[in-house]
Amino acid sequence: MTSEFRHLRACVIRLWVNSLQSPDLAYFQDMIRFNEAIDEALAESTATYAEEVNRSRDIFLAILGHDLRAPLQAVSMSTELLLRKAALEDDALKCAINIQPSTGHLAVMVGDLLELVRSASEELGEPTTSLGLGLFIVKEVVDAHQGTIEVCSSELDGTTFTVDLPRKV
């Protein structure tokens, strides 16, 4: 994009110089003002373009992260259920055992992706859209089922919530 402005400037100056019959100080001042206007337009255009690229990237990453989270959670929970409940044959058991840590690694990557987008949004001063109701809703559901919630948090591993619900109330 900036090369187009440089080319435009060179063409206009070349045409302008060719049209001069006798150089005058006023002509050179006009050329200086023209160059300043082109430089200002270039700076504004480049800044606007960079902001739009960053905003588009952040939106794309946020959508990608959220769209990956749900199917990943389904795979993780299904694998855990298979390992707990099903009597799997050797090959199927090996597959389920291999799936479990892989989904954990993917969950960490998706979490990191969402954290990157969240921190970028905070740096830009954009307000967060979360109402903070998620844990409250989970607590109400767990209480209704007479279950328990455990929280384990460390700076290295982050925070893990474990929900236990009884089979029968």
UniProtKB/TrEMBL annotation:
CDD domains (alphabetical): HisKA
InterPro entries: BphY/WalK/GraS-like, HATPase_C_sf, HATPase_dom, HisK_dim/P_dom, HisK_dim/P_sf, Sig_transdc_His_kin-like_C
Entry superkingdom: Bacteria
E.C. no: 2.7.13.3
Catalytic activity: ATP + protein L-histidine = ADP + protein N-phospho-L-histidine
SMART domains assigned to the protein according to its UniProt record, in alphabetical order: HisKA (SM00388)
Record-level GO BP terms: osmosensory signaling via phosphorelay pathway
GO molecular function: ATP binding; phosphorelay response regulator activity; phosphorelay sensor kinase activity; protein kinase activator activity
Signal peptide: none
UniProt keyword terms in alphabetical order: ATP-binding, Kinase, Nucleotide-binding, Phosphoprotein, Transferase, Two-component regulatory system
Stretches assigned to the Signal transduction histidine kinase dimerisation/phosphoacceptor domain: 56-122
EC main group: transferase
UniProt name for this protein: histidine kinase
Species classification: Bacteria, Pseudomonadati, Pseudomonadota, Gammaproteobacteria, Pseudomonadales
